[in-house]
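Colleagues,

For the teaching module next term, I've prepared a clean inverse folding example: a structure given as tokens, and then the sequence designed for it. I'd like students to try predicting residues themselves before seeing the answer, so please don't circulate the second half yet.
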């Protein structure tokens, strides 16, 4: 039997309503904050991610689905959404609209070749936003508040916001030096990834899942001691704006995020529900002021987040949030062999009138058809009998009250609509 490729799974009809639920909340909330959807290709030139995600990252080093297409181009299935959105922003010169924050959102599958575990797969889904064009710390707070609003509407109670600043370029030059000095004496005790990170991007050593218990991690210098005055002010303003909205957060000095392009604000949304497993990050993001120019555009700042939809679904289940599948049918038509053509046209007419309707397609006996109506939780059944049809009527039974009435065939839809409103 052919199965789904390792690291992927089917989202089955019995579960898909939960996806629709979070997708609807995401779309509606983005619209409220004036973000517009953008759809970019699922594969891009490999170079985009090497530049846009960063050469020192695990994503680029180990996790990308990269292949040569038949024209010998190096192609990569997107491992995240920001690089593609920024590429499109530059390619379509969206920055030409001066003094505008370009607010974009996306959702869809992402691909990373990772070790499988609960909450981690090789094809997973994200939705995210990017706000491009403004240096204002308030936009960082807006982006965070948008995510918090979405998480609250979904109904999640056990989520905390963790935040940090990586400062500006000048802050990081000094901090980088301090980290190299700190970790070099213990370099041989660190994992092979960290040895490489120490040379390429020492900040990312702090992010290591293997060495996180090493004593040198706890005693590592803190970015806050290396921030320039401007960077301090920027961070204070983001926190002030979050405070003004009553958004609670926790400052974590070691939060550096996995991607190379972040500066200033970085944040994550962590599920705190017990039993969630080790992959507790529901999403995260930050400010990336150098990314647009890295991808070939002008010096334009940006800030955004991505939420992992698969983990949001896990969180919904873990927190016991019930999502109504709304999958019952309004009307089930019970018909005999002699009345099947009438039943079929009636079925179509009901649907065109906006009434969700179903009938039997197995030529079942009447009793079995009623059973099926029950199984589909139909609110009404319409019984199309031969003798009644000759009189120009059908019987409509309210399945809750068990009341059955004869209705003229011309009045079926108006009768149902009236009853449905009661
Ligand atoms: P990142 O782009 O790595 O910051 O990821 C943002 C969010 O996407 C994470 O917080 C997760 O919720 C989700 N995510 C990232 N990688 C995976 C994966 N392999 N499987 C499932 N969800 C993921």
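(Answer key — instructors only)
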């Amino acid at each position: 039997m052919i199965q789904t490729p390792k690291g992927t799974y089917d989202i089955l009809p019995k579960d898909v309503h939960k996806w629709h639920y979070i997708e609807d909340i995401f779309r509606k909330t983005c619209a409220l904050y004036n973000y517009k959807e953008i759809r970019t290709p699922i594969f891009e030139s490999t170079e985009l991610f090497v530049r846009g995600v960063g050469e020192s990252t695990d994503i680029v080093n180990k996790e990308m689905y990269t292949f040569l297409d038949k024209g010998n181009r190096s192609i990569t299935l997107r491992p995240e959404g920001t690089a593609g959105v920024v590429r499109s922003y530059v390619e379509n010169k969206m920055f030409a609209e001066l003094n505008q924050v370009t607010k974009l959102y996306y959702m869809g599958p992402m691909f990373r070749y990772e070790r499988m575990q609960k909450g981690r797969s090789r094809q997973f889904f994200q939705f995210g936003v990017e706000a491009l064009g403004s240096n204002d710390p308030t936009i960082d707070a807006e982006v965070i508040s948008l995510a918090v609003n979405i998480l609250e509407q979904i109904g999640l109670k056990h989520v905390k916001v963790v935040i940090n600043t990586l400062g500006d370029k000048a802050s990081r030059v000094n901090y980088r030096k301090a980290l190299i000095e700190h970790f070099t004496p213990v370099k041989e005790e660190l994992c092979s990834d960290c040895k490489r990170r120490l040379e390429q991007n020492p900040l990312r050593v702090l992010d290591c899942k293997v060495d996180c218990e090493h004593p040198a991690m706890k005693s590592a210098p803190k970015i806050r001691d290396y921030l320039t005055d401007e960077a301090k002010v920027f961070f204070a303003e983001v926190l002030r704006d979050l405070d003004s909205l009553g958004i609670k957060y926790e400052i974590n000095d070691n939060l550096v995020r996995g991607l190379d392009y972040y500066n200033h604000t970085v944040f994550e949304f962590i599920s705190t529900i017990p039993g969630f497993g080790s992959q507790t990050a529901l999403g995260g993001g930050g400010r990336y002021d150098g990314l647009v120019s890295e991808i070939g555009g002008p010096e334009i700042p940006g800030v955004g987040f991505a939420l992992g939809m698969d983990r949001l679904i896990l969180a919904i289940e873990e927190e016991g949030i019930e999502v109504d599948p709304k999958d019952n049918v309004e009307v089930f038509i019970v018909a005999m062999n002699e009345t099947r053509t009438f039943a079929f046209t009636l079925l179509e007419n009901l649907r065109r009138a906006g009434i969700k309707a179903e009938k039997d397609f197995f030529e079942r006996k009447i009793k079995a058809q009623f059973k099926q109506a029950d199984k589909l939780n139909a609110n009404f059944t319409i019984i199309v009998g031969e003798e009644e049809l000759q009189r120009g009527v059908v019987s409509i039974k309210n399945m809750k009250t068990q009341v059955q009435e004869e209705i003229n065939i011309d009045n079926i839809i108006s009768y149902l609509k009236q009853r449905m409103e009661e």
